[in-house]
Write a structure and sequence with these properties.
Elements: H1 3-9, H2 18-35, E1 46-48, E2 51-53, E3 57-59, H3 70-75, E4 81-86, E5 99-102, E6 107-110, H4 119-127, E7 136-140, H5 151-162, E8 168-172, H6 190-204, E9 210-214, H7 220-231, E10 236-239, E11 258-261, H8 265-279, E12 286-290, H9 296-305, E13 309-312, H10 314-319, H11 323-334
Parallel strand pairs: 3-13, 4-7, 7-8, 8-9, 9-10, 10-12, 12-13
Antiparallel strand pairs: 1-2, 5-6, 6-11
Length: 336
């Protein structure tokens, strides 16, 4: 029996389809958080804009879109949390199959398209998150029926409605699963969009930092443009979202959805390399690396490359809820 097959046998959530495992997570994770709780794990504590990060390992946007399992992830060892993407109005997923996985290549695929119960429902859920001890990021987006010319209004609504619960906001312009969304990352639209959003942010809650989540599918010149155009407005960047590119032998549809996990690793590293060079001009910017980080060694490498914090999505799905605690233990022992 191969190690990968043996690993599946010890990870019962992988016995289920991707969709069923995803749907069961909000119910199973709160229980696992109680059973597997770890006590305030600390590794390379970090301070930024008055926020305290006990460790640099965070929950990526998209893992918990509704806020149902935030307390559990905190108990499981995360150093910070990101909830969402949230939109002003509730919306369902894109039609058809919306997720799949390729365990052999440690890859996930999704074409969800910001399914969530809306900002009103999220605010009620966050009101109940009374035991929060670590920073909370809220990832905001637009409803799929909102035209790009009015997109800033959707983001501004989310900011206005949810600012009392957030430590940091993340503007998600980089998902490949909302038609036309990435057009907002072009030079024609990016600065104008962010300027309008920042005006609302300064009006409502000037102390709340705003980050921009970027795509891995931009070439280096386009990425540099995005960093330059946004640099005077946002407080940092998350690099990167899922990729529309496909690896050899990929079982996923080639014309829709985004891939995360190990096939995203090199693209994410390259984006971080470019952004770290840009950060030298403004060391106060926050850099968060995400995409293909599945081991303590990769965490250490991303931080050596210039990331202040790192986030996980696919590694949590594939390796399971003990990932934070196990990774922190190995970091403390092998990379201190």
């Amino acid at each position: 029996m191969s190690n990968k097959k043996r690993g599946v046998l010890t990870r019962p959530w992988l016995w289920f389809s991707s969709q069923l495992a995803h749907d069961l997570a909000p119910y199973s994770l709160p229980l696992l958080g109680k059973v597997l709780s770890v006590s305030n794990p600390e590794y390379r504590p970090f301070q930024w804009r008055g926020l305290e990060f006990r460790n640099p390992l965070g929950l990526a946007g998209g893992v918990d879109k509704t806020g149902h399992a935030l307390s559990a992830w905190q108990k499981l060892g995360a150093g910070f949390l990101e909830v969402g993407t949230v939109t002003p109005e509730p919306q369902g997923p894109n039609p058809g199959k919306i997720m799949d996985r390729d365990l052999e290549n440690e890859a996930l695929w999704n074409k969800m398209g910001f399914p969530n119960p809306g900002m009103q429902a999220l605010s009620k859920k966050l009101q109940d998150f009374k035991d929060r001890e670590i920073p909370l990021f809220i990832n905001i987006g637009k409803n799929r029926w909102t035209d790009n010319q009015q997109a800033h209004q959707d983001y501004s609504q989310c900011f206005s409605h949810l600012h009392r619960y957030a430590d940091v906001f993340v503007a998600n312009l980089s998902s490949p699963n909302t038609k036309g969304l990435r057009d907002l990352l072009t030079q024609e639209h990016l600065k104008a969009f962010l300027t309008k959003l920042k005006e609302k942010a300064l009006e409502v809650a000037p102390d709340k930092p705003l980050l921009l989540k970027l795509s891995p599918d931009m070439d280096e010149d386009t990425l540099r443009m995005a960093l330059s155009e946004s640099g005077e407005i946002v407080d940092g960047w998350i690099l990167t979202n899922t990729t529309k590119s496909r690896y050899p032998g990929s079982p996923f549809p080639s014309d829709q959805g985004g891939v995360s996990g190990q096939p995203l690793k090199n693209l994410s590293r390259q984006a971080l390399k470019v952004a770290a060079q840009y950060k030298k001009q403004d060391p106060q910017k926050l850099l968060i690396s995400v995409g293909g980080i599945g081991s303590p060694a990769e965490v250490a490498l991303r931080m050596e490359m210039g990331a202040d914090l790192v986030q996980f999505y696919s590694a949590l799905v594939i390796q399971g809820p003990r990932f934070f605690a196990q990774t922190l233990s190995r970091l403390q022992n092998d990379f201190s």
